[in-house]
Amino acid sequence: MNALPPAILVRSLGDARLVLEAAAGQAVTLLSLPDAAATLGAAYWQSLVQAARADHPAAPAHDLLDCGTAGGYALAALRQGLTGIVFTGDAEQRDKLRAIAEEQGALLLDSRPQAFDPANRRNPEADCRVWLAAMAARER
After folding, report:
1. How many domains does the structure of the chain reveal?
2. Which site in 45, 72, 118, 137 is 20 to 30 Å from 38, CA atoms measured?
3. Buried b / exposed e along 90-115 (16+ C-beta atoms within 10 A)
4. What is the pLDDT at residue 1?
């Protein structure tokens, strides 16, 4: 897989919808909070992403659930059918999980990508648009 599109932190379905609306057709990566697999779970994250995509079916969006160092949560996420996870655990577990991910066509990252955080902003949607435009300009 090529480099992921710009990542934006997502805390809720409202956040995910806001990001996809702000992206206005630009590819983005919906990134969970650190260790979100332990607090939200893979099924919840999958449902959140599916609901946001249903509202914006033409929006090109990747998603990453952060599993932290917990191999069990990472495996559960892959079994759930997630297509992208972050796993920062030990190399032996990571290699096994990466093999499983590759078999399924999923992506496993061993570190979190840099991400924009729209929380606590006066106008998060507009700020997302500005940030995404800046990221697109960098790629040119």
Report:
1. 1
2. 118
3. eeebbeebbeebeeeebbbbeebeeb
4. 45
